[in-house]
Amino acid sequence: MARQKTLYSCTECGWSTTKWVGQCRGCQAWSTLEENLPQATGQVQSLAPATPAQPISQIDGQATKRRSTGVPELDRVLGGGYVPGAVVLLTGEPGVGKSTLLLEVSAKAAAASRRDGLSPVLYVTGEESASQVRLRAERINALDDSLLLATETDVSAVLGQVESTNPSLLIVDSVQTMTSSEVDGSAGGVAQVRAVAAALIAMAKRRNLPVILVGHVTKDGSIAGPRNLEHLVDVVCHFEGDRHARLRLLRSIKNRYGATDEVGCFEMGDFGIHGVDDPSGLFLSDTASDVSGTCVTVTVEGQRPMPTQVQALVAASGGGSPRRTTAGVDHSRVAMTLAVLQARAGFDLSSQDVYVSTVGGAKTTEPAVDAAVALALVSAATGRPPKAGLVAIGEVGLTGELRSTTAIGRRLAEAHRLGFNHAIVPRQGWDAAAKPAGMKVTAVDHIRQAIAAGLAPAS
Fold first, then answer.
1. 169-173 and 211-215: which strand pairing?
2. 97 is in an annotated binding site
3. Predicted local confidence at residue 326, as pLDDT
4. Of 303, 311, 418, 438, whose CB is crowded by the most CB atoms within 10 A?
5. What pTM value is reported for the model?
6. Known binder of ligand: residue 92?
7. Which residues touch 373 (CB under 8 Å, ≥6 apart)?
8. Adjacent-strand bridge partners of 147
9. What is recorded about the protein's domains (predicted)?
10. How many other CB atoms are there within 10 angstroms of residue 442's CB atom?
11. How far is CA 430 from CA 255, 362, 424, in A?
């Protein structure tokens, strides 16, 4: 009988090999290979099912009816609220406002539970003391008698708290600070995070209890811990934003119960974090419209169109190598747009410093902003401001053509609502029926036509 070989599998990505190596060849992680002993092969005995299979039409759907979190922007990202028994993983960089957001969510959910006669909300913290959490709750006005606070770092103690309080919502801050006595290793390690997450997920499914876990991120922005943590949970949300700016964006990366193309907007203030129902004005400057080097476009974040102003500055280079500095836009696409302007439109900026930025800390990478970036660059180089009330939408190709983009109708409707009365769009894929009433739309084929139609005549 042939001897079975021992396999070593990576705990991060699942890559396996017959020899132990220090670095995984699949994900390049170090010290993540664990030995998997050979399993005996043979016929598996069948067992009687615990519950018989039922037609899907006869399954009770009321048991998983969504409940609102009390924060409309979070409900938007989750698809209408949290589902009983679902496990949500909220990640983000340190200081972005994860704990503040969840403390506000827990207070509003506790008030709703008390009003509806439901069980209280349990908030478990493993990073701060109870008095420290109480101090933040007073600052953001998140005190409620139906909000229970516990300080635990052992997952067994957390399960005991759940058994004794029977909460309607459980929040754990954070999963990397919890440990399991059944697994060796320090808190935050691969084995500990996997064991803690598995215990909490099993409890959530068994009790039909919604659970929100806070997760840390590494230096490169990925979720700390084993990669299969994202596969175990039902929803993964990422909270992002510059700590020096007030704007925060909540994106859904994975959602088993809804779409993953929704974005929630929040504003961080001195008294907590609050949702922004209409964030359009946050990305527009208050400067006069006759200033050169600016252009407005409309980006789509999920299903939400948001006007964004692009600003450009072209200055004489002080050295042999001109600078190319960007903020909020894709650096490679700006470099490509500069090359297209030089080769296809006759605007040579290769010997000058170029700076391109967005207003309000907005970040966008979609190709639809290419037209606005090109107009802002030409406006800054020539001193010709854009025409009043202008927005530019479209992707610029390497041949200089303006390519079509998605959701032009919704983009123009949002721009018209904010007072913009002139738009430049690609002729390819343009439907005149999508034009808002009272708005002038110029459909062009090439970036040269967009420059001629979008910038004021030279003085």
1. parallel
2. yes
3. 95
4. 311
5. 0.74
6. yes
7. 295, 310, 312, 329, 333, 334, 337, 356
8. 121
9. The middle region has homology to RecA with ATPase motifs including the RadA KNRFG motif, while the C-terminus is homologous to Lon protease.
10. 18
11. 32, 27, 11
Helix (H, G, I), strand (E, B) or coil at 78: helix
User: How remote is the C-alpha of 123 from its chain's centroid?
Assistant: 24
Q: What is the mean pLDDT of residues 18-46?
A: 77
Using a 10 angstrom Cβ sphere, with 0-12 exposed, 13-18 middle and 19 or more buried, the burial of residue 379 is buried
Say if CB 176 and CB 164 are below 8 A apart. Answer: no
Residue 252, preceding peptide bond in cis (omega within 30° of 0): no
- Which residues lie across from 123 on neighbouring strands? 149, 171
In this structure, CATH architecture of domain 282-454: 2-Layer Sandwich (3.30)
Q: Name the residue among 268, 292, 256, 299 with its Cα closest to residue 391.
A: 299
Q: Is 319 annotated as a binding residue?
A: no
Residue 189: other Cβ atoms inside 10 A: 16
Strand pairing report for 121-125 and 33-36 = unpaired
DSSP state of 284: S
Residue type, 146: S
Beta strands in 197-349 (DSSP E): 211-215, 235-240, 247-255, 263-269, 272-275, 294-301, 304-316, 324-327
Q: Is 185 annotated as a binding residue?
A: no
214 labeled part of a ligand binding site = no
Is residue 89 predicted with pLDDT exceeding 70?
Answer: yes
**Number of helices (H), then strands (E), in the chain:** 10, 21
Which runs of consecutive H residues, i.e. helices, occur in 190-348?
Answer: 190-207, 228-232, 331-344
d(CA 168, CA 140): 22
d(C-alpha 378, C-alpha 43), whole Å: 72
Strand ranges for 109-234 from DSSP E: 121-125, 147-151, 169-173, 211-215
Residues with Cβ within 8 Å of 193's Cβ and at least 6 positions away in sequence, in order, are 175, 176, 224, 225, 226, 229
401 is in an annotated binding site: no
- The verdict on whether residue 96 carries a ligand-binding annotation is yes
Pairing state of beta strands 272-275 and 263-269?
A: antiparallel
User: Topology of 66-277 in CATH?
Assistant: Rossmann fold (3.40.50)
**What distance in Å separates the CA atoms of residue 384 and residue 404, rounded to the nearest whole number?**
26
CA dist 449 and 359 (Å) reads 26
Q: Annotation-wise, does 438 bind a ligand?
A: no
